[in-house]
Amino acid sequence: MSDHKERLDQSLSxxxxxxxTDIELHRLLKEVSEGSELRDKWKRYHMxxxxxxxxxxxxxxxxSAAIAAAIDEEPAHRQSALxxxxxxxxxxxxxxxxxxxxxxxxxQLNSPLDSxxxxxxxxxxxxxxxxxxxxxxxxxxxxxxxxxxxxxxAGGNNKSSQFVTxxxxxxxxxxxxxxxxxxxxxxxxxxxKHSKHATLNSNQGMLPFARLNEAEAxxxxx
Amino acid sequence: MVFxxxxxxxxxxxxxxxxLLNGPLFxxxxxxxxxxxxxxxxxxxxxxxxxxxxYEYRGNLTSVKLTHGVQDGQxxxxxxxxxxxxxxxxxxTDNVDCLRTGDxxxxxxxxxxxxxxxxxxxxxxxxxxxxxxRIANRQVVMVHVLPKDKHRYGYVVAIDKESGLLLxxxxxxxxxxxxxRFQFVDITIGGSMLELGFDPExxxxxxxALDQSNCIDDNRQITTSVSNWDTQWLPxxxxxxxxxxxxxxxxxxxxxxxxxxxFSVFIDIDKxxxxxxxxxxxxxxxxxxxxxDINNQEYAICVVGEIPRATANxxxxxxxLSPSLSPSPSPSKSSSP
Lengths: 222, 337
Prior knowledge:
Radius of gyration of chain A: 31 Å
Strand order of the largest sheet of chain B: 7-8-9-10-11-1-2-3-4-12
Oligomer: heterodimer
Number of strands of chain B: 20
Structural class of chain B: mainly beta
Structural class of chain A: mainly alpha
């Protein structure tokens, strides 16, 4: 008959052999829930396979209706959280949650730092406002007000480039009576100088280099 | 005959195993976290290596290729940016044996603050070895470094087992959130200057100025010029690592470290009028700019470092001109518009 039916038959065979793909299984389940022709076929296949394997042939008692009815009587459990979760987010989400558990698992030791997965939490950066004394102000190029500090794609003001540019966030404490360019130049300068000093004087190996690069890049943007 | 020798071998092996297993009872064959940290301080300077590292903060990531070579007591470094604008850098440091304040602290020696008091890293951080891991395809020892007070941040570091190089460092806030992450993704340790791609005569460095800084003298103190400025409050454990007197632009700078964290203080003699009091941060680096009006001079005082903002604020607000000394005359430049 139709291609569709043929495909379903093939899928069903595959399913019986344990070789059906997710898509095939999905299609079969959908079809079975709608029409009984395929369901009967499925049942027959099962009986045949049981007979071949030497199981007692379980004649033609159909439990499915009873089971379906029983399930219907339990509305609270019809959509378990897991089913919704698995259904909507799919395998990836489950895999990710397993990975997350693994990360947490490995770090379950015993210090305050243990319960953290550094990699996964980079987006949620510590709020910089500890004792904010003034309003955040908008700076042009390179500067970003603290309000936007939580965005991950920080390179918003450099859309022409695929690379994220370093951003210095600034909070103003007093009235504004200075040149922004001058302030930026000063901030970039002291940060670059600090990092340069640190490469010589700290023990963090090459780490201050990385910071130096950021500061220099910020300075270069001016 | 053969059998008895075998028995003896087994006995010796058992004894060795017993000694190793009970290591801590027999003066620790296992490296302590602190040994690791001090090994790290040495390794990053004294070894030849070439690698790629990434630096990440707040969703920004950059990658850098680094080559580090030592020849005739001088350190040669090439820093090459792998993304963004093309930027390469060469750096040359004069003295591989120069011990700096930070090295001293990290190596476990007490730094002599004055005749009575000594600063030790262990007084301010707790070190926990957290097992092993793999970074840049090398076996590493993971160490958690926890601050004992609120004035500094903690770290999660990975130290190469074999060489002692720092292969990963994550700066952690007090709430346990990562502020920045530095990590090698690939590294080759060893190799001659030539193999590292440096000219063996280092002639490509001929134009590169030497970076110099304050080395520690026999007295376990750095020799610095006297500053006109007093840091009336420093977070405990921080000591001065370098000091530069006012340059042509009238900027004086000091650097302090507790062995791990570093912050700098910049004092500008004539910028106070043109700069606002402001807080800024770039990645994990915070800058607090305050102004001081002394003898009709408006000074800009800026504290920059990888320290909590509150600490930086406290340091900045406690800096004052030494009462014993008169303020240094303003060098040439007139005050800005």
